């Protein structure tokens, strides 16, 4: 069993990811939820690393754990959630429907992943280690996907302009 | 194949252990004689008013949004820069132009922010 170390790491990381995801959803304080979300992102970064996607793993840590979490915490601060107990709802049909729909969606995803991929893709290809580097990604990005690359730039520009327009009143 | 990551794991482990130890050792080794004054919120000698969960100025949020946008720009520029030197000459020029357009598009966003006074603090 040459996969021993990978298997142990995968089990550890996936338990960490599922545990932190459950904790994130069930916490009462939004800041506690945010901290568990960071742990979840960290565990998924580790799983990306096990799949030989080194660049994606680093980006997961840099962008999701760094930048996106800053945004999430800023939104929590801006919303001024003084009394969190006010946010909790009573049991209602609305809640029951959303619970049933979530369970249904979870089953659908689980079954399709299980029957679609079970038995297939059991090992990582030998080229994966080379494909996951920043260098091979950059080559593909610039030569094969140069138009989507520029469109991504325009999308980021739209994000800057959108944020400025939405917050404009305070600057005039 | 995971052997190459062992130094990174060691760094992560040492930094996590260092942070954990520093926080917990000081409370373990230091004397612990709490009283009402010591346990109250420190606010430079003033009586604390309200909670720490206060509303922030939108300016902080604008800085956070700009940070994310330019962070993602770096994510795109990093593979572009790494692959750049290994191209043959015509592809190198093409790659340079592509990257330049990308940077100019985002520079327009930065200039727009600057002109709108988003980055101004007074």
Can you put this structure into words, describing what you see?
The complex is a heterodimer of chains A (172) and B (122). With 172 residues, chain A is mainly α. Among the domains of chain A are: 1-81, NADH-ubiquinone/plastoquinone oxidoreductase chain 6, subunit NuoJ (Four Helix Bundle (Hemerythrin (Met), subunit A)); 134-172. Chain A is 76% helix and 0% strand. Chain A is built from 7 helices and no strands. Chain A is globular. The termini of chain A are far apart. Chain B has 2 domains: 2-39; 58-116. The longest helix of chain B is centred in the last third of the chain and has 28 residues, at 89-116. The mean pLDDT of chain B is 85. The chains are: A mainly alpha (172), B mainly alpha (122). At the A-B interface, α1, α3, α6 and α7 of A face α3 and α4 of B.
Strand-helix topology:
The complex is a heterodimer of chains A (172) and B (122).
Chain A: H1 4-26, H2 30-50, H3 54-79, H4 93-117, H5 128-131, H6 134-144, H7 146-166
Helix pairs in contact in A: 1-2, 2-3, 6-7
Chain B: H1 6-29, H2 36-39, H3 58-84, H4 89-116
